[in-house]
């Protein structure tokens, strides 16, 4: 069973991961400079005990589900919103290829050239606009970037500095946690966008 201090340690590593450009939780094996002493001095230590007990081996996914939705304070994770973020996250995670197919179908229905979704002309690429309008999943954008590398390539063309940096960080920081079969996703794209 996950111990409260371990729950805190994991939380701290993921908080750093999602909020700081320089920290990579996976690279540093979820280690950060927290100590049991600093943990026991916290007023919110009981939140971590409750999360550890409730989610145990699913705690990592619980945290990720909330961080990707912009919930970064542990107290805010312990409510209906935190639970619904988790349920939605697990639903997408468990049917990642079906969700990806659904999102690719959304793109196909728009009847545009495939490459046009990823081109930035001083403003966000269409794929990012669809993400912001919640018409496609964050997972789909992460998968497409893993395959195409468009975020870095097109990001240099974007002059807007208010929304883009946050979206860029969110996609890049979430990407390592998205489990998918690359060949299967490439196949879905090819089947969808190859004219018969």
> What class would the helix/strand composition place it in?
mainly alpha
**Sheet having the most strands:** none
The CATH topology of the largest domain is: Annexin V, domain 1
Q: Any idea what the CATH superfamily of the largest domain is called?
A: Bacteriophage T4, Gp59, helicase assembly protein, C-terminal domain
How many beta-strand elements? 0
Number of helices: 12
SSE string: HHHHHHHHHHHH
Tell me what portion of residues adopts beta-strand conformation. under 5%
Bulk shape: elongated
Quaternary class: single chain
Query: Whole-number radius of gyration?
Result: 18 Å
- Percent helix, as a range, is 55-70%
- State the CATH class of the largest domain: Mainly Alpha
Summed up, the domain count is 2
List keywords for this structure.
about 200 residues, Annexin V, domain 1, about 60% helix
Structure description:
- It is a single chain.
- The chain is mostly helical.
- It has 2 domains: 4-93, Helicase, Ruva Protein, domain 3 (Orthogonal Bundle), CATH 1.10.8.60; 95-193, Bacteriophage T4, Gp59, helicase assembly protein, C-terminal domain (Annexin V, domain 1).
- 62% of the residues lie in helices and 0% in strands.
- The protein is built from 12 helices and no strands.
- It has helices spanning 4-19, 36-40, 45-55, 59-67, 74-77, 80-94, 96-109, 126-132, 138-148, 150-155, 164-174, 182-193.
